[in-house]
Structure to design on (106 residues):
């Protein structure tokens, strides 16, 4: 798998930070080359030239269309994080979503 930069988006970046940490641990176990970070929705535009995938917390559904409009011209894949993945801080499920989005499922 080539390297991918993934950003999780939420309000202040705290809750998604825990999820990103769990996903990084899961990626390390699977030996996947992923950089997974969490940021506040307010700073996402500063990172658009540095990411391949943007995953949005379920409580930011209202920002989805706007963020997708910003990301798609740059080739950035955008999806919502399922509520169950987010609320359970399920790094494995998030990693499965990321791998699916890369198109490089093993």
């Amino acid at each position: 798998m080539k390297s991918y930069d993934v950003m999780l988006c939420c309000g202040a970046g705290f809750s998604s930070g825990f999820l990103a940490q769990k996903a990084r641990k899961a990626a390390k176990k699977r030996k996947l080359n992923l950089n997974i970070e969490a940021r506040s929705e307010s700073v996402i535009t500063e990172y658009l030239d540095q990411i391949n995938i943007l995953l949005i917390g379920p409580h930011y559904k209202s920002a989805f269309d706007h963020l997708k409009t910003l990301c798609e011209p740059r080739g950035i894949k955008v999806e919502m994080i399922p509520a169950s993945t987010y609320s359970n801080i399920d790094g494995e499920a998030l990693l499965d979503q990321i791998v699916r989005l890369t198109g490089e499922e093993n």
